[in-house]
Prior knowledge:
Layout: H1 4-11, H2 16-42, E1 61-63, H3 64-69, H4 76-98, H5 109-118, H6 120-132, H7 137-153, E2 161-165, E3 173-176, E4 179-183, H8 193-197, H9 202-205, H10 213-225, H11 235-252, H12 258-262, H13 266-285, H14 294-301, H15 318-333, H16 339-343, H17 348-355
Parallel strand pairs: 1-2, 2-4
Antiparallel strand pairs: 3-4
Helix pairs in contact: 10-11, 11-14, 11-15, 11-17, 13-15, 15-17
Amino acid sequence: MKTFFEDCIQKSDLNKKFYKSFNMIRRNLLYFGLIIILLNACNKSDKPNADISDIQLNIEIKRLDKDLFEVDLGNTEDELVTIIEKYGDFFEIYNYRVINLGNPYNKNYPEYLNGFITDYTMHSVYVKTTEVFPDFFELSEQMTEAFKYYKYYFPEKIVPEIYTYIGGFNQSMVVADSILAIGVDKYLGSNCEFYDRLGIANYLQLTMNPDNIPADAMRAWAITEFEYHDSIDNLVNNIIYHGKILYFLDVILPEFTDSLKIVFSEDQIKWCVENDKQMWNYLIDKKLLFSTDYKVINQHINPAPFTPGYPSDSPGRASVWLGWQIVRAYMQRNSEVSLSDLMFDDDYQKILSQSRYEP
């Protein structure tokens, strides 16, 4: 895998002796850089090491997927009363926003519901879901620990009720007031046969694994709790905002790998580490950092096979990785800044300036 700079070197008329020296220097620099990365990983700020042992919390995941697909079809109306009582506002959201069955109080609703849960494809998806997720004990523990950290840093904020559902592959997460719901049919494993049938792009399938749920769920919650605000909607502000969300995951999910937090493979993380300077210089040289072009911003912050403008072996959203490093540098240089301070700070230019980021 070639870096931008290597391409420039190889295309020049430099003699072999100089190129040999360059390679030796590069190897030494990469070795030194690896040591620094490892030291930083072992010497994170004290923020992720908060003592959460006294925080009383036990998250129970409510399985609408199971309750719905195991309804007694001969007694749908009576069982609906129990489901509506158990799932409350989320059941209405689910029907209106996810599966589009409409008002669950409509007299024809039981008929619509029976059609949905007896549909051959939907029933097959439910069977697959029970194979992949026979229970949610591990996920419940992961979400409990994550929200204990959340309560430690944001004691005034509520902890949502957490639900699982099958949404016909429509949405991965649903977030509303006091509600965080997970579309488990979007996490059946990257090799799931349904995803190929639906024509879901390979780069998206690689993110549709059970291990991705905790970080995806906490990211979705953070994005709604700490919304993007700035009078100038440009690229650098956007990547720093998403960098803040990823730093939030650093603290809330301290045991998770970077690859799970940003949803990159280990090779893609390695690519970003090796090419951060080239990416940064590209954005500067092309005058993209302060671009307010909606298309440019989307190209750099949304999922894609690769990031436009970067080589084809780059991950999509590689510029968001830069924003993450900017925020990490800012927090490292400003130890007095709490996680709460960071998440409510919308002065992205200040964060950039005080980070003194220089890849």
